[in-house]
Amino acid sequence: MSEKARLTRAAVILAAAVAGAGCEYFRDTPEQKLAGQRWRECAAPLRDVKLDRVDTDGRIRFTYVALHERNRAMECLEAAGRSGPPLPPPVSEAVASK
């Protein structure tokens, strides 16, 4: 096999390995999947809460406008944690109304 063919083959193998690792990097962790499911269930009836992100450890970070809706979301997420696998406590931040 020529030097050029070996280099081309090595480059193709390296590119495939990097692409495979990149796809794995963008998959949600099991904790993120669980947190996302809980968020969808808890936030569905609420208008003034917005998911910002879910950390890799499952911590939910969200913003809210109305304090009572923030409290409802927090209570729901806490109840879900009591009846299922625990996740880190959610973090919320107030934002100005629209």
CATH architecture name of the domain at 30-94: 2-Layer Sandwich
Shape: elongated
| Tally of helical runs | 3
Mean pLDDT: 88
Query: Helical content, roughly?
Result: 55-70%
- β-strand number: 3
CATH topology grouping of the domain at 30-94: Histidine-containing Protein, Chain: A
Looking at this protein, list some descriptive labels.
15% strand, alpha+beta, single chain, 3 helices, three-stranded mixed β-sheet, 3 strands, Histidine-containing Protein, Chain: A, 98 residues
Describe this structure in words.
The chain is an alpha+beta fold and 98 residues long. Helices cover 55% and strands 15% of the residues. It has a domain at 30-94: Histidine-containing Protein, Chain: A (2-Layer Sandwich).
Fold topology:
Layout: H1 3-25, H2 30-43, E1 49-54, E2 60-64, H3 67-83, E3 91-94
Parallel strand pairs: 2-3
Antiparallel strand pairs: 1-2
